[in-house]
Known about the structure:
The complex is a heterodimer. By secondary structure, chain A is mainly α. Chain A is built from nine helices and no strands.
Amino acid sequence: MSAGRLFGAVLGRDLRLAARRRTEAMLPLVFFAVAISLFPLGVGPEPQTLRVIAPGVVWVCALLATMLSVHQLYAGDLADGSLEQLLLAPHQAVWVALAKALAHWLVNGLPLLLAAPLAGVLFDMSGPALLALVTGLALGTPVLSLLGGLGAALTLGLRSSGMLLILIVLPLATPVLIFGAGAVSTVEAGQSAGGHYSLLGALLIATVMGAPWATAAALRISTE
Amino acid sequence: MTWMPPADKAPVLSAVALGGQRGERPLFRRLAFSLMPGQVLWLRGRNGRGKTSLLRLLAGLSTPAAGEVQLDGHPLRALPLSWRERLLYIAHANALKDDLSVTEALQFLGRIHAGDGEAAATPLQITTALERLGIGTMRSAPVRTLSQGQRRRAALARLALPQRPSVWLLDEPFDALDTDGIAVLNGLLREHARAGGSVLLTSHQALSLTDPLPQPLDLDAFGVAG
Lengths: 224, 226
């Protein structure tokens, strides 16, 4: 299937570009680490309070880190003419949208999972709670990358697109935030978080099926 | 009975009563032309007349305000997506990523445009194409380090690859090229036309191509009054 070749080419190129601009690719992760470290400093060192706010803080910071990095997802390709060429490929642009979202997740979402244990130390989280946090992030951050890609495509070429993107995507991302943070609280209350994971999984499936098509349509409109 | 042109001389790409606009402002209307196999059309018009807009319409990147674009007599929107395999559009922007090497950038473009069962350009073929354009020594250099003229040559190296589509849409291909580069591009255009390919290009400078002689297509003639 040569649609797979288009997908592979875009994914491979974006990963290669990220590897060539390592400092730039690291910035969202640094932002995430710095932002979550501010909370224990600001709120005070009460372990009880920190444990309560931990899931919400980590999720909000993950959401913001994703929004900051997804902003540039299509802007570079638009500026140098690559986007036009991608839209001229003899396949649906949905493959481009899917590949770019996956590349974004691998470069920006996956490192957040690896950095989450840092939150465990900072917020004095228990082992099971930390596991619930990481599981939730694993299911939720791909949704954020996909929704972010859609927002980036919709705001492509607009002035103040960064702020607009955040305003468009944040409301769409609230279910992920609620169930992701909820999973941790449930585990801390001694219950099973299975229901939360199922809902996050369902959100992921729905976004994988829907967002790339919407992104492809938005790209066509933005470049018209 | 209607007269039918001989099968080998049917237009490849044609515009039928095409209207284009930028935002709310109409650019041209009732534009009609046919691009035949072996023909080089020279799209002319003053700045802001919509030359690039027309190329984008023909490439299917935007939808016309009126009329339609036809490939082999079929409207673009009715064709399966594989029609795009027959088209090569080189825009004003070179579509080369700064952080990739010249070969990597061209390989990427080759991969995304390759159709079903068609092999994408190999590094060896790309090197040969770059040598033809006179920048063979730059093949491993990052695009970032190339001059404007060298970037243009690298983008035009797509025309010298063995897997070349039959319809070329070139937006200001002679831009930033020196005399030597212009001669190479003329050679590529000649070869393509002789092999039955068609070219539609824009250029604000006079063309030095004589074989085939480019047919002018004047956008000013289809302009909207005022």
